[in-house]
Write a structure and sequence with these properties.
about 80 residues, 3 helices
């Protein structure tokens, strides 16, 4: 009867478990946060436009910028903003 030898791989060669690159966030919360950050970034421009134009046009301008950034495909993004 033959005895079988069992070899174990040294620990230096073990593959560590994968750590997620991005912490898990809810998509809706992340989208709302990014939309708020964009509005803060554009705030000085939006205030100036608000003095000169109707509020609805300023709101449409902000939404158009959001769509252009979200959908980099020129045709699809602009179609959604109409």
């Amino acid at each position: 009867m033959q005895s079988q030898e069992v070899f174990f791989m040294p620990t230096q060669y073990l593959i560590p478990p994968e750590v997620p690159q991005v912490p898990p966030y809810e998509a809706q919360q992340m989208a709302q946060g990014l939309a708020g950050d964009l509005a803060l970034f554009l705030f000085p421009l939006l205030v100036t436009l608000d003095r000169l134009l109707d509020k609805r046009l300023v709101r449409t301008f902000l939404q158009t910028i959001q769509v252009i950034l979200a959908y980099r495909d020129r045709v699809g993004g602009l179609l959604l903003s109409e």
